[in-house]
Design goal:
Layout: H1 12-26, H2 31-34, H3 37-41, H4 47-60, H5 76-80, H6 82-90, H7 95-117, H8 125-140, H9 149-167, H10 176-187, H11 195-208, H12 210-215, H13 217-236, H14 238-251, H15 261-279, H16 283-302, H17 307-331, H18 340-358, H19 363-366, H20 373-384, E1 389-393, H21 400-406, E2 410-411, H22 419-424, H23 443-458, E3 463-467, H24 481-486, H25 489-495, E4 498-504, E5 507-512
Parallel strand pairs: 1-2, 1-3
Antiparallel strand pairs: 3-5, 4-5
């Protein structure tokens, strides 16, 4: 009987394991930024993002924007929120979850477009791995400011910045029109954002010259989109031009950057990488530098120094510094004894740590379950006003939002805060009176006063919250928000049905008690 030949061990399992490890390594540069995913999805939603989402839902429900709903934001951000607000209103998907999903889908589209804007074969291995992960860092690195207007701007701008680096070399690029449309929409969210493409386009022009630049369709596509948007305002949103803009121009007063240490720090940190970028030969670092400078100009012009104004500067500092470091390490990669993807992951991790320690995430999210002003107010509203109408009279947006969103309460105030009153009474009246009569009020103040008092009399909300500090200058005595509206006899009569029941976060909370004749405790 012939003996069978000995079996030869197959190397297929080893090849499969090796292929699996190699595939896993491709995701290593993404891991540091991916760690922020549960952070940005965890509550609380950013208060400004929540307020815009709530206003959009009210707009869908039939309250006219800028006629009934008064807000200084240009209309584009409300248009962009229509899809998640509609899904939250007409489907079982909550508006907050729908909004987060839409932003993540936008991030996926940005990642795909960013890959196609680059010549990856011409990049060093560390630079290539780092830039692959940059869109994930941009979409998640905003932390608590996830979904803010500045965050959406820099996310939509990323493929455009990569495209600009190739346009500056007169290279044909596929999908460039899709990138131009996305960038034009992102920059149109606020007029201040135009500082970013303004500086970038000047740089492209300086390299191409006038003739070649004028033949480039990208600036023309963006300009046409901006022109269409501007032309639509007097047709679709005339009250934004006639009512809101005059009020905003006289009501929103800024401060100094030295009163905002985080902004001043970001400006100081911006200088070294910009200086290094313009001393080097590469176009992309220079374009990232100009975008960061444009973001800084946008923040300075707004004169607030709020955290979300600073987010684009910080994110671009990280991307710029990481790109410069990756290019430098690629030139010396023969001295490195580690995988380029691990090096890129290390650069990404530095960026993640920077945005964590300069911002509010994940510390705000980690502390959200503990007793704080947001969770306390949310619990009180959940107990008394779940799916009910509420009236909140406060100069603040936090902690009212996102508490209102989480308990599905319906805010009846025509504005996100009492900013209209703050603008109308930023100076004391010349005759020493505390409040204007109805006939003397401007259009916005009259609209606010009449809407609040009339609706309060016809359909009193379940809960009223009044801020103990109205944020309006004292002219002989504190501005009393309740006294201001009780000058209308219908409001005063309806107020007799309310009783004080709690204090939270500097707010006096009153509950409607449907017992005729009972007086409200103050």
């Amino acid at each position: 009987m012939t003996a069978s030949p000995p079996s030869i061990p197959s190397d297929e399992p080893h090849r499969g394991l090796s292929a699996g490890l190699e595939l896993a390594k491709t995701f290593v540069p993404y891991l540091p930024a991916a760690l922020l995913l549960p952070v940005v999805l965890a509550p609380p939603l950013n208060h400004d993002v929540a307020a815009v989402l709530d206003f959009t839902a009210r707009w869908i429900a039939g309250e006219p924007l800028y006629t009934r709903l008064l807000d200084p934001n240009p209309p584009l951000i409300f248009v962009l929120n229509l899809l998640p607000a509609y899904l939250g209103t007409h489907t079982a998907v909550g508006a907050i979850i729908a909004l987060q999903a839409c932003i993540l889908l936008m991030g996926a589209a940005v990642w795909w477009l960013a890959l196609r804007m680059r010549r990856r074969d011409d990049e060093g291995p560390i630079e290539r791995s780092f830039l692959d992960a940059v869109p994930v860092f941009i979409v998640l690195g905003a932390g608590y400011d996830f979904g803010q207007r500045e965050h959406l701007m820099i996310l939509g701008a990323l493929p455009y910045l990569l495209l600009a680096a190739r346009r500056a070399g007169a290279e044909p690029v596929p999908l460039r029109f899709a990138v131009a449309v996305l960038a034009a929409v992102a920059f149109a969210i606020k007029p201040y954002f135009l500082a970013v493409p303004g500086l970038v386009e000047l740089y492209v022009l300086s390299l191409l010259g006038w003739r070649a630049y004028l033949r480039d369709p990208i600036p023309w596509v963006m300009a046409v989109i901006w022109a269409i948007y501007l032309a639509s305002l007097p047709i679709l949103f005339p009250d934004y031009l006639n009512v809101i803009l005059p009020l905003v121009s006289g009501s929103y007063v800024g401060g100094s950057i030295w009163e905002a240490p985080r902004l001043a720090t970001a400006l100081v940190l911006l200088v070294p990488p910009v200086w290094i970028a313009f001393r080097g030969p590469d176009r992309l670092p220079r374009i990232l530098s100009l975008a960061a400078v444009g973001a800084a100009v946008s923040a300075l012009v707004q004169r607030k120094g709020w955290s979300y104004h600073i987010v684009p500067i910080e994110l671009l500092i990280c991307v710029l510094a990481g790109t410069l470091a990756a290019c430098w390490l690629d030139r010396r990669r023969s001295d490195l004894r580690t995988d380029s993807r691990l090096v890129a992951a290390g650069l990404s991790l530095v960026g993640v740590l920077f945005v964590m320690f300069s911002g509010e995430a994940p510390w705000r999210e980690l502390g959200y379950r503990n007793a704080d002003e947001q969770t306390e107010l949310k619990a009180l509203l959940l107990e008394t006003a779940h799916n009910e109408r509420v009236l909140v009279l406060s100069p603040r947006i936090w902690p009212i939002y996102p508490a209102v969103n989480y308990v599905h309460a319906h805010q009846t105030l025509p504005a996100m805060s009492i900013w209209v009153l703050q603008g109308a009474y930023r100076d004391c009246l010349p005759d020493g009176r505390q409040y204007r009569d109805l006939a003397e009020m401007g259009v916005a103040e009259r609209s606010l006063f009449q809407t609040v008092t009339q609706e309060f009399a016809v359909d009193p909300p379940k809960v009223v919250a009044i801020d103990q500090i109205p944020g309006i200058p004292e002219c002989g005595r504190p501005f009393d928000l309740l006294e201001y509206f009780k000058r209308d006899p219908r409001f005063a009569a309806a107020w007799s049905r309310y009783a004080f029941f709690a204090q939270s976060s500097g707010l006096d909370l009153y509950r409607r008690v449907d017992v005729p004749g009972r007086q409200a405790a103050r």
